[in-house]
């Protein structure tokens, strides 16, 4: 296995060639083999991770770290983390998460890391954006979260997520 860590700012298209050579001599016979591996920097790459913790009622003391065992009335808090793990900017990054079945929406919030400027925008339809997080969401609805980096209060291809930037979204829902 070869693991490659590319520093932020490396130019797209840059290549690196690694050549491995193995030699072995047994008795009087010698064998040599080589293998080459070429890596090319390809730009932005978005990684999404989601995790959940179950809470009792509306308190913040953890009852069970497994949201699959949550009971009616329990509030489940979960996070979605979007990270640009590539070397190039990503454009128009919108994270969407549907309201889970058999839950009621409680809240959503987002924090940013690695952005120079930018405002978190929220939407419940993916087209109308607001700096204020929604306080309600109907069954079957979805929350959209994005970062406005060009200050036009909309999400377009001009909004950039730089390398190493992270958006952390925290959702709270209550089990029906």
Summarize the structure.
By secondary structure, the chain is mostly beta strands.
What does this structure look like?
The protein has 176 residues and is mainly beta. Helix content is 0%, strand content 51%. The chain is built from no helices and twelve strands. The strands form four sheets. It has a five-stranded antiparallel β-sheet with strand order 4-3-5-12-8, with no helix packed on it. It has a three-stranded antiparallel β-sheet with strand order 7-10-9, with no helix packed on it. The chain has a two-stranded antiparallel sheet with strand order 1-2. The N and C termini lie far apart (46 Å).
Kindly list the characteristics that best describe this protein.
single chain; 176 residues; mainly beta; 5-stranded antiparallel β-sheet; 3-stranded antiparallel β-sheet
Computed CA radius of gyration, to the nearest angstrom: 23 Å
Oligomer: single chain
Q: How many DSSP H or I helices?
A: 0
Q: In whole angstroms, how far apart are the ends?
A: 46 Å
Structural class: mainly beta
Shape: elongated
Strand content range: over 45%
- Poorly predicted regions: none
Order of helix and strand elements from N to C terminus: EEEEEEEEEEEE
For the biggest β-sheet, the strand order reads 4-3-5-12-8
Helix content: under 10%
Major sheet details: 5 strands, antiparallel
Mean pLDDT: 86
The number of strands is 12
């Amino acid at each position: 296995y070869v693991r490659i860590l590319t520093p932020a700012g490396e130019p797209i298209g840059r290549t690196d060639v690694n050549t491995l050579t193995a030699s072995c001599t047994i008795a009087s016979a010698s064998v040599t083999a080589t293998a080459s591996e070429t890596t090319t920097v390809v730009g932005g790459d978005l990684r999404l991770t989601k995790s959940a913790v179950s809470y009792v009622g509306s308190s913040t003391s953890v009852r069970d770290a497994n949201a699959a065992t949550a009971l009616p009335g329990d509030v489940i808090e979960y996070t979605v983390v979007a990270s640009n793990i590539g070397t190039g900017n990503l454009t128009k990054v919108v994270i969407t998460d549907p309201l889970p079945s058999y839950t009621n929406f409680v809240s959503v919030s987002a924090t940013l890391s690695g952005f120079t400027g930018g405002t978190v925008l929220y939407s419940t339809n993916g087209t109308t954006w607001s700096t204020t997080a929604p306080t309600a969401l109907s069954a079957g609805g979805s929350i959209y979260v994005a970062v406005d980096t060009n200050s036009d209060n909309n999400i377009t291809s001009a909004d950039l997520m730089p390398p190493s930037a992270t958006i952390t979204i925290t959702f709270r829902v209550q089990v029906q």
